[in-house]
Amino acid sequence: MKLLVAVFLLQLPILGLCYHDYRDALSKSILFYEGQRSGFLPLDQRMSWRSDSGLGDGAERGVDLTGGYYDAGDNVKFNFPMAFTTTMLAWSVIEFGDLMPPDENRNALVAIKWGTDYLLKSVSELPNRIYVQVGDPISDHNCWERPEDMDTQRTVYAVVGPNPASDVAGEVAAALAASSMAFRSADPGYSETLLRNAIKAFQFADAYRGAYSDNSDIRNGVCPFYCDFDGYQDELLWGAAWLRRATQEDLYLDYIESNGQTLGATDSINEFGWDNKHAGVNVLVSKEVIQGGMYSLQSYKASADSFMCTLVPESSSSHIEYTPGGLIYKPGGSNLQHATSIVFLMLVYANDLHQASQSLDCGSLIVSPASLCTLAQRQVNYILGENPMGLSYMVGYSLRYPQRVHHRGSSLPSVKDHPNFIACKDGSNYFNSSSPNLNVLVGAVVGGPGEDDAYEDDRADFRKSEPTTYINAPFVGALAYFAANPNPNPSSLLT
Fold first, then answer.
1. Domains of the chain
2. Which terminal Cβ of the chain has fewer Cβ within 10 Å, N or C?
3. What is residue 494's predicted lDDT score, i.e. its pLDDT?
4. How confident is the model at residue 481 (pLDDT cuts 50, 70, 90)?
5. Per UniProt, what is one GO molecular function of this protein (predicted)?
6. How far is Cα 173 from Cα 258, in angstroms, rounded to an integer?
7. DSSP track, 176-222
8. Catalytic residue annotation
């Protein structure tokens, strides 16, 4: 006999139910991206302690590669995680943009466009060449320097066919395709440009199969930072799945149908992030099964169901680790990148199931969409301060948040306060200081606590204290959902 679960969360710790201003957190989560901008900053720049930077990017190759985002607390532009960030921001708008206040919807589109404008430059020489990175990471990581003062090598890394870059090109294809959907109403012309270039990026990814980090001429620049650790196959399916959703063309449907087994789509890999898209592919493609009756894709839905069941504590297949305080935990650095991305997938899947009046079948357990949303909300609340430390892991949200964030621009004095050049090693005093960062990187979600829920607020402990663009991106969608549905239940779920 199967048990219908509506309140299975009783086994997880309840650390005091708090009121959370999800709308404020949403606003801050989007504002964070202004602190990560590279290039010429606009007049309406709200993160006012930042200034123009990286204005010569691409010059060594005679190409304009200004713009885009610094991925974390350093000053390198890694296209692989930047493209994933852009994909997730776009997916957040596609799924939950209608729930955002109009001004925050506009801000989210601005954040997406800052990424896509740069990604369009990176694919401007296709079908033969794709740019994958700007900035030498070795010299950059040997400095503690404001982006406005960068005097390290701004090396341009590119892949020329037939050398492979399926992972980066596939993710760029996904980012541009998803963003074309986000801009479809707001800017149809820009949307068409994005989609046209998404198709070119995917053709490059599929034609020259392999990981970009396998190219010997760029490997030392991309590894071990954003090396392809989990293979390029998932990015091919991810790019094709987004092109299918953006175009509704059978060409891409046939691709994900015929390549699912060979590219590992049905693998039960319980991870989703900048390097591993398997769980995301399965959730994205499952919409065609749940809402469109496309049963030829049933294997994707089976894998999505399996993934979701691993997250449910009472499920017999549950094997996701939780901290004593109730946070999803995966060994390795920057744990909150896993929590925010998994939360987003849970909400998307719950919404898809609800719209089709379906539930999640976990064998002996039937889990309602509302229960998935409640489990996701516990993760969001933990991040916002409902945890054993009583600490918000979003900078600038609530009264207690990390003060010593591993972030160069935030920890060093602003150019406006200290206009004199600060050389590479001269920033070390600020890095080693026990004082709080001089500039508040509002909205940044840091790597988060360890498996024991402990957080030391140590700038040097980058695994815990460094924010990244790809931690925030899926959190934008989750916060948009809960800003509109602070008390999820079957009647308040999206329709």
1. 3-484 (1.50.10.10)
2. N
3. 40
4. very high
5. cellulase activity
6. 19
7. HHHHHHHTTTT-HHHHHHHHHHHHHHHHHHHHS-S-GGG-HHHHHHH
8. 406, 457, 466
Task: Answer for the pair 118, 194: CB distance below 8 angstroms, yes or no.
Answer: no
Q: Which pair of tokens denotes residue 130?
A: 């794709």
Distance of CA 335 to CAs 271, 348, 383, 449, 462, Å? 12, 21, 11, 7, 11
In terms of C-beta distances under 8 Å and separation of at least 24 residues, what long-range contacts does 263-269 make, across chains too?
263/233, 263/234, 263/236, 263/237, 264/231, 264/233, 264/234, 265/234, 265/237, 265/299, 265/300, 265/303, 266/299, 266/300, 266/302, 266/303, 267/303, 268/303, 268/306, 268/307, 269/230
* Tokens 């390290």 -> residue: 152
- DSSP notation for 298-350: HHHHHHHHHHHHHH-TTSTT---EE-TTS-EE-SSS-THHHHHHHHHHHHHHH
Task: State which H helix or E strand residue 83 sits in.
Answer: helix 79-96
Q: What is the pTM of this model?
A: 0.95
Cα–Cα distance for residue pair 340/165, rounded to 1 Å: 27
Region 268-289 average pLDDT: 90
pLDDT in tens, 336-385: 999 999 999 999 999 999 999 999 999 889 999 999 999 999 999 999 99
Within a 13 Å sphere around the CA of 428, how many CA atoms are in the beta-carbon half? 6
- Radius of gyration in angstroms for the set of CA atoms belonging to the chain, rounded to a whole number: 21
Q: 126 pLDDT exceeds 80?
A: yes
Q: Is 377 left (phi over 0), alpha (psi -120 to 50) or beta?
A: alpha
* Mean pLDDT to the nearest integer, 184-199: 98
- Look at residue 238 in the predicted model and tell me its pLDDT: 97
